[in-house]
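== Polypeptide entry ==
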Amino acid sequence: MESEYQVLNAIEKNMKATQREIAKSTGLSLGSVNVLIKRLIKKGFLKVEKLSPRTIRYVLTPQGFKENAEKAYRFAVASYRQINAVNGRMDKIAQSLSGGDAKTVCAFGEDDEICEMLVGRLKRHKVKFARARTGGEAEGLIEKAAAAGAGQPVFIVWRHEYAQMLADKDIKCYNLLEGL
C-alpha cells in the first residue's frame, strides 16, 4: 500500500515521468514500478495517455486523486500514532531514570529527529545524560563511568544495529523502537 502511495504521489508531482524516473524518485525497482502502475490502472486510479508513438503520460483519475489523498491521510495518522507511541516510551524510560540515582545515561545514535525528541524528553524529566554518536564514543563513556565508580551506563538507542552492538557486548539498553 505504501508503494502504491509513493507511485501515485510521484505521478501527481510529475505526470511526464517515465517508469524509470518514478523508480528513481521512489527508491523502488523498475519492475516494481511497472507492476504497481499496472495495478493502479486496473484499479482505475491511473490512466495512460499516448502523446506520440513512443511517448506516454500517466494521469491520475479523479478516483486516483481521491485515493492518493486518502493514503496521505492514513500515512499521516499512522505516523502521528507512531510518534505518540515513541514519545510515550521515552517518557516511561525518562521517568524510570529520573530518580535520585547517579546513573550514567547515554543517548546513543545519530543526531536525527528521534534524537531531538529524546533529548527534549530527558531534559523535561531532568535526567542528566551524555551523547554518543559512534561505537568509540559509547566505549569511551563506559570506560569513563567505570573509572568514576558509577557502574555501567544506561544506554538509550533508537536503531536496531546499535542495540545489537551493545547486546553483543552484554550491555543492556533501552531500544526506543522495540515493540512498536
